[in-house]
Amino acid sequence: MRHSSSRIYDIIKNEFLGWHRWEILWLLLTSTAVGIIASLYKDSLTAITAAICGISASVLTGKGKLSAYIIGGTGRVLYALIALKACFYGEVMLNLLYFVPMEFYGIYVWSRNMDQGTHEVKKKSMNRRQTALLGITVAAATASYAFWLRYLGGKLPLLDSFTNAVSIIAMIVTIKRYAQTWILWLMVNTVSIIMWTISCLHGTGSPAILIMWCIYLMNSVIMLIKWMHEARKTFNS
Q1: What are the pLDDT digits (tens) for 109-118?
Q2: What does DSSP assign to residue 87?
């Protein structure tokens, strides 16, 4: 029991270690911005909370911290409720049936691959063969899932399918600690912005969620650069 308590204490302590000033500022800036803007749009408390959790989890994932999966799981549940209202059934199923369980798996894998020097998860990069296989998998998964969503009568089935298929694959790539995950998230974020912009124009979307995806996009670019740089350092060491 004492060993278990000590282990939990170390994990919590390490969540606060290894931060650069710009990373702390980015986390605070993005979380605060989405909360304030969403409040000005008089969005629901559920949407505002989901957006803040989502943004925080995205930045924490980029930082390589275990808390990303805890905060992310909370945001996933809230986001699914909002997506249900917008009739994005693919998003609902993706978050409740896939992402939430995968959050626990992410904690399990990352906790066994933490760098004791940086207090972040260790990053790596795919080779050309792995990258090509990744592209083929994304294309096949998107086409297959689009047929299913169209059958359910969901809105924008092709775009919804793309974000879902790529998100499913990106989550696995994230847990496997590959830097290429941020390329996938960048694509997901771009298409999601289009989806939620259309939804907001039709009066069924959430401004807070749209803003959240815009910040996700910026974060993906920043974290792609960060992870690729750190993956190269690991490879050359």
Answers
A1: 999 999 888 8
A2: T
